[in-house]
Amino acid sequence: MMQPTAQAAGMRHAAAQLRAKAERVSAVMGRLDAQVGAMVYSGPAADQFRAVMAAERDGLTTARSVLGQAADLMDRAAARVESDPLGFDQAWTGGTI
Amino acid sequence: MTRILIDPNELNAAASTLGACAKELADTGSQLSSNVGIAMPAAVEADLSALMRTADQLLDQLGAILHREAVGLARRSVVASLDSLAAATGSTRELTATRMGVDLVAIGVAPPVTASPLTGTISAPAFASGAAAVSNQSGFGRARADDTLGRAAIATLQNSEANKRIRYSEYATTQYSFGWKPKERHNYH
Q1: Radius of gyration of the CA atoms of chain A, in A
Q2: Residues of B at the A interface (Cβ-Cβ below 8 Å)?
Q3: How many CA atoms lie within 13 A of A91 on its CB side?
Q4: B131 with B180: CB under 8 angstroms?
Q5: Residue B121 DSSP symbol
Q6: Quick one: average pLDDT of B126-137?
Q7: Shortest CA gap A88–chain B (Å)
Q8: Rounded distance, CA B156 to CA B162, Å?
């Protein structure tokens, strides 16, 4: 069975990776913003394109938030494992830490 | 009056950016499974799996939208190039496309022509299969980063003869050029 400290370290590593993925999503948002903002493209199709891209931005914001929540969950779980390495408290769950 | 402004080069660049962003999202989504495989309390794993599924589905959908928009921009770029050439030569889009070797049906700009015994069967738009392949690549834990067909569809559109020739042809110097510069035209001729 894995040592609690190793388990906590693994979860913190996973949290860091999830945050990195959230950053990648942010980078994509920035790149899209720059691209769309710089375009001279105009007309009905351009309006539609910009509306789609605005919705895309909202979706990316949500995705980034979900990845951030997952990272927070892992960090909280790691802290819980570290504070209770022998697992006396069996009642806790990841979502209610 | 509605003002319409289209620069095929700009649409090309935007299509490339959107295509790259779609791939980035696919890469990010396909790597999520690595975060679930580590040792953790069961209750945490359940919550994390739920969040990962949500993120994965979102990234899938957003990537598919970006890909669709990228192909749409690339297609408009080709059409704008063809129309520019057609206007400069007093021709039509269809005739110009034929002259430039652009298959309007294959890139989804024109509907498939009804099969005729004289002309034979015309294949379905190649582009459509690429888009479908991307949108079907969903599901947590699947590898979706290798969007070969989707990228090929965009590349085909962007590298079409019409787009190449407009940059290097004499027509680029006309008032219909939408701002292109007649660079390296001698390279083409």
Answers
A1: 20
A2: 2-7, 10-11, 13-14, 17-18, 20-21, 24-25, 28, 31-32, 34-35, 38-41, 43-48, 51-52, 54-55, 58-59, 61-62, 65-66, 69, 72-73, 76
A3: 0
A4: no
A5: P
A6: 36
A7: 13
A8: 11
To 5 degrees, how large is the angle CA B59–CA B61–CA B64?
105
Complex prediction ipTM? 0.86
What is the dihedral sign for C-alpha A49, A51, A54, A55? negative
Location of structure tokens 């660079």:
B183
Q: Please count the other Cβ atoms lying within 10 Å of the Cβ belonging to residue B81.
A: 32
CA nearest to A20 within chain B: B28
Instruction: State the average pLDDT over residues B33-47.
Output: 84
How do residues B87-121 score in pLDDT, each as one tens digit? 888 889 889 888 887 888 877 777 766 544 444 33
The answer, for A40 touching chain B at a CB cutoff of 8 Å, is yes
